[in-house]
Amino acid sequence: MRNRLIFQGVSILTLFLFPAFWKGPALGSEEAASDNPGTLYERLGQSEGIRLVVEDFVARGLADRAVNFTRQGTSRPWVPTPVKLARLIRHLVQFISAAAGGPEAYEGREMKAVHAGMRVTPAEFDALVRDLEASLSKFGVEIREQEELLALVETTREGIVEPQKQTS
Length: 168
Ligand code: HEM
Known about the structure:
mainly alpha, Globin-like, binds protoporphyrin IX containing FE
């Protein structure tokens, strides 16, 4: 009887203590994966994955009146001819790839020089960022990668958004 009671006591104690020592294999492997996640460039699917997102993003930005990508009504209207569009997409893919840690070199012009005189407002920049988020979601890019890329894009804001002249 005494032995049975001791046995029961030990069993109950084990049940309570077990969760404190148990590290599930799923949790362990998740931790291992996040220790070595690869560059953002790799996690976005390298140049091919980035190109898919950029093509969708450029089409979305061009169609978005809140962005006014073609800069109508400014001193720098931009006509998206097939040649100019192809160059924009090529340079944007290179720009994002290089910023995300990829091997491609960016062959375009410097951000401030490209956008000088376009009079881009904070609201237009925000609208374009939302278009990028929509394209990333469309292609199933995980939230973590979305946040990392958006943080990189955010670093370009200062050179692209221009102080607006007073109209009165
Ligand atoms: C509302 C915000 C923006 C507007 C209206 C805008 C507009 C434009 C336009 C019209 C061009 C073509 C210029 C030309 O070929 O002469 C251009 C080029 C470019 N933009 Fe933007 N842009 C914006 C934001 C951004 C952001 C956030 C990035 C970076 C992530 C970016 C990266 C580029 C690049 C890499 C080029 C190509 C430069 C080259 O071909 O030398 N732009 N942009």
